[in-house]
Structure formats: C-alpha cells, structure tokens
C-alpha cells in the first residue's frame, strides 16, 4: 500500500514535470481547453445570476388591479367590500396612488424622474393574493374582476415570472448542449495529446514492457497527465470567466450608478467551482484513458 | 528452473526457428546457447522470457508454463529475469542512473532503497562515475555494461543475455565475461546466447548447441 501510494505520488510529480517541461505545447492545450469550457461556463454564470435576480423579486401568484383614474372614495369602498366577500380572494391590500409614487421613488432609484413630474401618473390599485395559486383560479379571477365597473386594468403578476422561468429553462438547455459538445472537444484534445505522448515515448514503453511493467503501470503516467491537463484547462476556464465577470461588473457599476441602484454579477460559488475542476479533470482522464487503450496495444514488445 | 520439452517455434511466413528442442537448466547453472547465426539462439531466449509464445511443446520457468500464461501474468514472469539485449535498448532521453532505475520503479521499490541499489549496480559494472551522463555519450562497452546494470539491479534469479559481447573487442569481452561469472558465483542462473568462442573458452560453461533450430549432438 505504501509503495503503491509512493508510486502514484512519483507518477504525479513526473506528469507535472512533463507538463511543465513542454511548456509552450501544454500552455496552448490548456488555453484551448480553457476557452472551450469558458463558453458554457459563462452562459451558466449568466443564467445563475438572472435566476438569482428574479428570485429576489416577488414572483408569487398575485393580481394587480388598477382602478380607473376617475374612481372616487365610494368606488374604492365598494370594490373593497366586494373583494372581502369574494370566495377566491385570500387577502388584499390597497395601494393608494400617492403611496405608490413614494414607493416608486424610494425603491427603484428613479427619484429624480419622479420629482420632476407635474402630477402623479399612477392610479389607485389593489394587490390581491388568491386562495390558491393555480393558473385557472387566477385567470378566472382576473377575467371576473375585469368586468367590474371602475376597474381599468387587471394584471396577473405571475405571467412574466413564468415567462422568465421558461426562458431560464431554455437557457439551461443551451448550457447543457454547449457543455456536452465542448466536453467532447476536451476529450478529443486530450486524446490527441496523449496519442502524441505515447508515440514519443514508444521506446520507453517497449523497454518497460520487456522488463516486466504491467499495463496499469504503463497507463498510469498518461492518465495522470490527461487528468492534470483537464484540471489545468478547467482552472483556465474559471480564470477566464472570472476575468469576464470582473470586467462586466465594472461596466455594470457605471450603469447601476446611472439608475441609482445596485446590482452586480456574481462568479461561481465554491461548490460549482470545485465541480467544474473535478469535471474537467475527469474528462481529461477519460480522453487519456481512451487514447491509451486505443494505442497501447499497438506497441507490443518484441 | 527452466525446461524446454519438444518445443517448436514457427514464425508466420518464415521457416521453423526451433524444431523439437528439449533441455533443462538447473538453478545456479551457467549455460551458453551457441550456434551459427539464425540457428535459433535468440528465439530460445525470447521463449524463456515470454516475449514469444512457442508454437508447440512447453516452456516451463519456475514451474509456470510460459506459453499458457495469461497476458496479465507475463509481466510478473519477466520480473524473475534480468534481460540483456543485443541492441541494449537503452533510453537516451534520461540519465544513466534513471535507466537503471526503471526496473526498480516497475517493481515498486521505495525511492531511497532504489537509489541505493542503483548506485550498487553501477558500482558493480564500473560506471559509478557516470551516473548523471546521458547513455549516448558512453562507449559501446560502457553501454553494454549499463545494460547489464539495468538487468541486475532488481536482483533477478535468472540472467538472460543475447550476444552480450557481440560488438566488443576481446579485452572488453573478457571484462564482461568476468562480470557474468561473478553473478553466477552468487547463485544467479545465467543463460547467454553467443557465438563468441573465446568467451566460452574462458568461462567453460555447459553448452547447448543449436544447428538450424535443432539441438546439435
């Protein structure tokens, strides 16, 4: 067990030395892998951020009911009364138009715009939570409320959330497809690198076989070298994406300042970063394994 | 230790390299396999080390039938042997001591112990001063001795040498003969394929003579 471990340690050190020795070639390989992986990775980061952003907004199944501009106090009281008695309404809040304007200027950072308005453009509104969040109930309620007098517009707030969700799902699918394609590219790149390594070390393999090396012994340095190359490529992809996020955030900071709001894009979390590295190392290992299995038997000691 | 019984070896598209060869080698013996070139000397060594399988008959090494071994078992058979090749098969992309290190790495020796053994083996063949040299800078005789150091470094029970003095002048050949004699004296079974008669005269070994693939009387 101890010799086995020390053999492995020795092999890793050797593979690292080889990688460092052929610096230009391995740098190029690592860069190609890094760029290939950073495409789906960047898209993934974007989607995670969009999802995060939409999660922070309230996306519960709510109806916003906007009253007509000419609705008076007694109209509001009458609608309130109806709502209170309605079976499908769980709870509702009234948002007066002045209050709404104050909220708008406080929360969205459009204070300057709001201050410059001559009169309040917002209508009075009710925000309604339904007894159950199913689309049928909500849509039925929406259609019913629309027919009430003095109600200008009824909006189902969950619509956009659902559309966003569908878009995110589509984006995730795109990430998966891109990742699958480029993972294949990573495997192919490693396959080829290892093939070249095997060819240049052909003599060594022949001699090693003649003096009693087992196939796993011969395979091992190539597998490590493939895994290390994949790992380095994954690291490169991480760095490339981090740099893009950083640059993007700088641009975004200007934009956010213009809107007097704050948002910034976050890079991969620890768990995602570690899975990226593990995944790319695994793919490198796989490419090396395929290559070694394909080419090793061709070198038979004679 | 090694026994051939009724061994035949045919190469595809070629003639019969060995015909019905039967002999046995006891542990601790020194044996020369002699004959003109093409008599089948190298084939005998290749069959012993499992580099080629026999076409028929059986080759038994340490009680194992070499021809019937599974491919996965062959490496472990080869670790009983020290192989000295006619063309040396040295690796020119690494130092002298790293060449000798290879069998120890394969056998899984611990690094310190391995380094000690490498020095001992190089000392034995008189190359201790050249540890860090590249084998390509060594003379023919030195390369042959390096090949011997690599073959003995893991202390195999059997040493197989194919034409070890093939390209050497007689003084060098004498040195190498003495080396083999000293290994044999510490109990290593030595099998040498050669047509060098002066070497045979010096070491007076038992001789297995081959002629056209058959044992010559």
Helix content of chain B: 25-40%
Mean pLDDT of chain A: 83
Q: What's the β-strand tally of chain A?
A: 4
Largest sheet of chain A: 4 strands, antiparallel
> Based on helices, strands and strand pairing, what is the structural class of chain A?
alpha+beta
Kindly name the structural category of chain B: alpha/beta
- Overall domain count of chain A: 2
- Helix share of residues of chain A? over 70%
Most extensive interface, residues per chain? A-B, 21 and 25 residues
Number of helices of chain A: 10
User: Per DSSP, what share of the residues of chain B sits in E-state strands of 2 or more residues?
Assistant: 15-25%
Distance between the termini of chain A: 32 Å
Shape of chain A: elongated
- The amount of beta strand of chain A, in percent, is 5-15%
Biggest β-sheet of chain B: count, sense, barrel? 6 strands, mixed
Strand sequence of the main sheet of chain A, in spatial order? 2-3-1-4
| Overall morphology of chain B | globular
What is the spatial order of strands in the main beta sheet of chain B?
6-7-8-3-9-10
What does this entry look like structurally?
The complex is a heterodimer of chains A (302) and B (217). Chain A is of the alpha+beta class and 302 residues long. Chain A has two domains: 188 residues, no CATH class; 95 residues, Alpha-Beta Plaits, CATH 3.30.70.3040. Chain A contains ten helices and four strands. Chain A has a four-stranded antiparallel beta sheet with strand order 2-3-1-4. In chain A, helix 2 crosses helix 9, helix 7 packs antiparallel against helix 9 and helix 9 runs antiparallel to helix 10. The longest helix of chain A is centred in the C-terminal third of the chain and has 44 residues. Chain A starts with a helix and ends in a 6-residue tail after the last helix. The model of chain A has no long low-confidence stretch (mean pLDDT 83). Chain B is globular and about 45 Å long. In chain B, the strands form two sheets. A six-stranded mixed beta sheet of chain B has the order 6-7-8-3-9-10, sandwiched between helices. A four-stranded antiparallel beta sheet of chain B has the order 2-1-4-5, covered by helices on one side. Chain B has a domain of 66 residues. The mean pLDDT of chain B is 89. With 217 residues, chain B is of the alpha/beta class. Helices cover 35% and strands 25% of the residues of chain B. The interface between A and B is medium-sized, with 21 and 25 residues.
């Amino acid at each position: 067990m101890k010799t086995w471990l020390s053999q492995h340690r020795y092999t890793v050190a050797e593979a690292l030395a080889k990688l460092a020795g052929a610096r230009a070639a391995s740098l190029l390989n690592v860069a190609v892998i890094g760029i290939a992986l950073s495409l789906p990775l960047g898209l993934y980061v974007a989607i995670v951020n969009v999802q995060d952003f939409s999660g922070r907004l309230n996306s519960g199944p709510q109806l916003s009911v906007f009253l007509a501009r000419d609705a008076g106090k007694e109209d509001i009281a009458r609608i309130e009364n109806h709502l209170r008695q309605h079976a499908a309404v769980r709870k509702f809040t009234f948002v007066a138009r002045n209050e709404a304007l104050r909220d708008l200027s406080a929360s969205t950072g459009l204070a300057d715009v709001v201050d410059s308005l001559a009169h309040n453009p917002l209508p009075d509104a009710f925000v309604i939570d339904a007894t159950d969040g199913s689309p049928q109930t909500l849509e039925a309620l929406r259609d019913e409320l629309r027919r009430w007098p003095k109600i200008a517009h009824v909006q189902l707030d969950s619509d956009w959330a659902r559309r966003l969700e569908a878009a995110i799902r589509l984006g995730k699918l795109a990430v998966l497809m891109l990742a699958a394609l480029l993972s294949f590219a990573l495997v192919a790149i490693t396959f080829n690198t290892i093939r070249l390594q095997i060819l240049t070390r052909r003599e060594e393999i022949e001699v090693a076989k003649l003096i009693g090396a087992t196939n796993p012994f011969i395979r091992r340095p190539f597998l490590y070298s493939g895994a290390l190359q994949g790992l380095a490529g994954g690291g490169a992809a991480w760095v490339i994406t981090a740099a893009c996020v950083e640059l993007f955030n700088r641009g975004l900071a200007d934009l956010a300042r213009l809107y007097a709001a704050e948002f910034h894009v976050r890079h991969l979390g620890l768990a995602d970063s570690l899975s990226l590295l593990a995944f790319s190392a695994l793919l490198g290992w796989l490419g090396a394994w395929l290559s070694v299995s394909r080419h090793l038997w061709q070198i038979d000691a004679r | 230790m090694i026994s051939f019984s009724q061994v035949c070896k045919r190469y595809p598209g070629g003639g019969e390299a060995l015909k019905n060869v039967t002999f046995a080698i006891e542990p601790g013996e020194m044996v020369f396999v002699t004959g003109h070139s093409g008599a089948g000397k190298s084939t005998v060594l290749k069959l012993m080390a499992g580099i080629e399988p026999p076409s028929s008959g059986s080759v038994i090494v340490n009680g194992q039938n070499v021809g019937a071994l599974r491919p996965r078992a062959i490496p472990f058979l080869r670790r009983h042997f020290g192989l000295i090749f006619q063309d040396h098969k040295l690796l020119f992309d690494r130092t002298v001591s790293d060449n000798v290190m290879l069998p120890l790495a394969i056998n899984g020796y611990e690094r310190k112990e391995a380094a000690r053994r490498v020095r001992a083996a190089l000392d034995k063949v008189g190359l201790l001063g050249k540890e860090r040299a590249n084998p390509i800078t060594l003379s023919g005789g030195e390369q042959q001795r390096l090949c011997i150091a690599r073959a003995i470094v893991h202390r195999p029970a059997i040493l197989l040498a194919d034409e070890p003095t093939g390209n050497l002048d007689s003084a060098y050949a004498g040195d190498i003969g003495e080396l083999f004699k000293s290994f044999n004296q510490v109990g290593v079974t030595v099998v040498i394929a050669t047509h060098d008669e002066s070497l045979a005269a010096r070491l007076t070994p038992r001789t297995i003579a081959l002629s056209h693939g058959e044992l010559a009387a």
